[in-house]
Amino acid sequence: MRLRDSLTECLYRGLCICFLLGGGAVVLLMVSYSHRDRGREYVPRNLPLRSINSQLIAARSSPDILSNVYISVKTTPKYYDSRLSILKKTWFQKVDKEKFTIVSDHFNESFVDLKLFEEEVIKEGFHLVTTKCQVEHHRKGLCCKSGVEYEQFYNYLERHKSDSQQVQWYCHFDDDIYVNVKELSNLLSKYDPSKPYYIGRYPRRFGFAVDSFRFGRLKNNYNVSRRIFWYSAGATYCVSLALMMKLEKYFNGVDKFQHTCAVSEYTDDLSVGAIINLVLGYNITHIDNMYNQATDLKKLSPEAVSKLVTVGFSSGKTVNMIDPQPRLFTSTEDPTRFLTYHCLLYKDTSWCNTEQ
Ligand code: UDP
Ligand code: MN
Q1: Is ligand 1 within 6 A of the CB of residue 107?
Q2: What does the pLDDT look like over 14-73, one tens digit per residue?
Q3: 86 sits in which H/E element
Q4: Is the dihedral of CA 296, 302, 307, 311 positive or negative?
Q5: Ligand 1 pocket, residue 30 CB under 6 Å
Q6: Beta pairing, strands 169-174 & 177-179
Q7: Domains in the chain, start-ordered, CATH in brackets?
Q8: Whose CA is nearest to atom 5 of ligand 1?
Q9: Residue 58 to residue 145: CA distance in whole angstroms
Q10: CA 228, CA 142: separation in Å to the nearest integer?
C-alpha cells in the first residue's frame, strides 16, 4: 500500500512539474482565449477589465427577484458595528426575509450595544440565530457555525415541503460581502436547480492544491473521486437544491459538519468545496462577476462594477475595494464604499440624498 501511495505521489509530483513547465504556454493561451470567449465556464479569468470613466449604471431589472433563493449570512458580534450594520442598511433590505437567515454567536448579555443591535435586527423582521459555538476564527468554531447554517436551511425545507413553490437555491455569504441581488437573481435564473450546481469563483489566481496529507485523510474516509486544484469557491457561493440534497449527510447540523471538517482538516468553506469537488465530483461553475480575494476591484470599469454579483472589500495591507463615482459619502462614513454602491444602484433609497 505504502509503495503504491508513494508511486502515486511521485506520479502526481511529476505531473505537477509538467504542469508548471507547460503553465506559461497555457496561461498565454488562456489570456488570448478569455478575450474571445467571455461566456465560457471553468476558465479562470482574473484579467482587469478596461477602465472607463462613465458613471455607475442603475441596477438592472430582474424578472423574479430571488423568489426561489435561500440566503445564509455568517457573522459574529464583533462585526455588528463595522460590517453587519452596513449590510442591514443596504442589500438586506432587498431580500425576502422569510428565506434569509443570519447566523451569529451567543454572547454575554452585559454587552448592551450588541444586544440592542440584535433587537433592532429582529424587530425589522430578520431571522437571527445565535449559536453556542466557540467564538473563534478557527476550524472548530467556524465549522460549528456552518453546521447551524446548513441545519437552518434543511429545517426551512422541511417546514415548507408542501409549498407550491419550493426554494431551489442555497446561497452563502460572509458578512464582508455586498450582494447585488438583482444580478444574483439574473445569474441563478440561467441555471437549472434540479441539476447539481456549485456556483462561485475559483479561489485563487492559480488554484489551490490539495495537499497529500489532507487528500489521504479524505480518501481514507470517503469514496474520493478525483484530485484537482480548483475545488473551493470560498465563502461566497450558491448551491442548487439538487446538490444540497446530496450534501445533507455531510453538513446538516453541527455534528455532521464538524465531523466532515475534522476528517478533512479543512475549515468550513474548503470542506464544502472538497466534498462537492473531490468526493462528489462536481466542478465549480466559475463566475467572473463573483468576488474573491483574487479580484482586483480597483481595475474594474464602472459598468463592470455595476454588474458584479457580489462585492467584497479589504482594507488591510492591500486595499481592495470598489470606488464608485460620484462619492456620496466620506471614507469615514462609507469605509467599504457599499453605501455609495447601493445608492447608485438604487437611487430612490431614502437616506442616499441622490438626485433622481
Ligand atoms: N467570523 C466568525 N468568527 C470569528 C471571526 C470571523 O464567525 O471569530 C466570520 C466573519 O463574520 C465572516 C467570516 O467568518 O463572515 C470570515 O471572517 P473575516 O472576513 O474576518 O476573515 P477572512 O476569512 O475573510 O480573512
Ligand atoms: Mn473576509
Answers
A1: no
A2: 554 545 555 544 444 443 333 333 322 232 333 232 332 334 555 666 656 788 999 999
A3: helix 85-89
A4: positive
A5: no
A6: unpaired
A7: 66-286 (3.90.550.50)
A8: 137
A9: 35
A10: 24
DSSP 16-56: HHHHHHHHHHHHHHHHHHHHH-TT-SS----PPPPP--PPP
Ligand 1 center–CA 122 separation, angstroms:
22
What local confidence, expressed as pLDDT, does residue 62 receive?
60
At residue 98, does pLDDT exceed 90?
A: yes
**What average pLDDT does range 154-180 have in this prediction?**
95
For β-strands 127-131 and 100-105, DSSP reports them as parallel
Ligand 1 lined by 320 (C-beta under 6 Å): no
Give residue-wise pLDDT tens across range 51-66: 323 345 556 666 567 8
Q: 129 and 103 in contact (C-beta within 8 Å)?
A: yes
What's the Rg (C-alpha) of the chain? Answer: 21
Query: Is 139's C-beta closer than 6 angstroms to any atom of ligand 1?
Result: no
Inter-residue contact 181 to 94 (CB < 8 Å): yes
Sheet holding 69-74, edge to edge: 127-131, 100-105, 69-74, 169-174, 237-240, 198-200, 285-286
Are the CB atoms for 338 and 90 separated by under 8 Å?
yes
HSE-CB of 13 using CA atoms within 13 angstroms: 6
Predicted pLDDT at 42:
30
Confidence at residue 24, expressed as pLDDT on a 0 to 100 scale: 47
